[in-house]
Amino acid sequence: MLILDAQAPVPLVTQIVQGLGRQIDEGGLREGAKLPSIRQFAQSHQVSVFTVVEAYDRLVAQGFLVSRPHSGFFVRRRAAAGPAEVPQVGPLGFDSAWYMRRIFENRHLAVKAGCGWLPGDWLFEDGLRRGLRALAADDADLGGYGDPKGYPPLRQAICEDLAEQQVPVRPAQLLLTQGSSQALDLAVRRLVRAGDAVLVDDPGYANLLFSLRFQGARLIGVPRTPQGYDLAALEALVAEHRPKVFFTQPRLQSPTGSVAPLGQLHRVLQVAEKHDLTIVENDIYLELDPQPRPSLASLDQLARVLYIGSYSKTISPNIRVGYVAAHPDLLDDLAQLKMISGLTSAEFGERLALSALQDGRRRKHLKGLRERLAEAHQQVGGRLAELGFELFARPGAGMFVWARHPALPDPPALANRAAEQDIMFGPGHLFRAGLEPTEWMRFNVAFSGDERLYSFLRAELG
Hints:
By secondary structure, the chain is α/β, with parallel strands linked by helices. The protein has helices at 12-26, 38-45, 49-61, 94-105, 125-137, 152-164, 179-191, 206-215, 231-241, 262-274, 296-300, 328-342, 347-357, 362-386, 411-420, 451-461, and strands at residues 65-68, 72-75, 174-177, 197-202, 218-225, 228-229, 245-248, 278-282, 305-310, 322-325, 390-391, 400-404, 426-427, 441-444.
């Protein structure tokens, strides 16, 4: 029988994980046994639902449990030789399959300090409304399916925008997708097979990491530093594991906000050339960057770089318009995968995105958005520092601050308590290649100005 002690120095989540893990190892809970539902466990042990959620989350990630949709949690078959590798969470893994729902289901929380989007009134809402009115007045035929690669006029407009970023792209090299998430998913399905070693930023883009785990990839984390990449570690990992793909985010990276400088980009491309490495560059925060910077794609000219962008962060996530630019041969394969999984993307949303892109007030909107984010960085970074938080980097741009506090060593438990106070946190293990515990947390500066956040943190710090 599992006994929990709320007064013990060990967090309740850890007590549950260790206790159930020990019962499974010792045979008290046999393979295939069904565990109590989250609510049943919470009621019988007098703990919060959020505590049980996090504990079951960790047990699935560690290979003790498996989550079966509409059925519950069951003891998982484990290899006889040693513990299961943390990165190899299966297709029904709690983190990969369930977190993606949980983060959006928790949109109702009043203070969304850990989320990955911008407030609605920071986006280009006026431009969208003008675009909707224009589309309503247009007599264009909106019936039927769109072009397999996406609405041609929008693809042409994106090519022109990318040319300003020194990425020469022809419309035949550009595929429109349902946001950057679909673009990343297409890249994963085209480039990765189960068991492949794949390089990723560590910490890195959570949605991508979940997609790669679902595909069965073996994730190899390239340490992220405040100055960009740990190049020595990158070269050693490439030499040891011989990966074929590196998924990375050089600019205003999520979750750290760090930016890789020009010299590092050149070195990454040299390593890629030497070891025949394909690079998938996730540049979805391009429009949030006030500084003109080169990208891996601009330096490589799409020879071995597959480039992904999106308008969800600056126009609206509701229009779900992203894109991928690549060598024509590779792009044709991606377009085929897009057709197999969902036919064409929605031309209505693509027409709306084009209207917003061509709106004369858009440049002013982007300038104001960058200034607003810079001010939020200054305010949020200052307030966290005053409370004793260590800031990983001070990007002054983009959406995120990566921070930790020596008196708050268990962010998942903190996130559970915060959720009970109507606050959403971003615990750092969700951004780690191996879901390893970490003291770091992600703060979205656009949602971290609320006094309720700092009242909660002060109370936690005593």
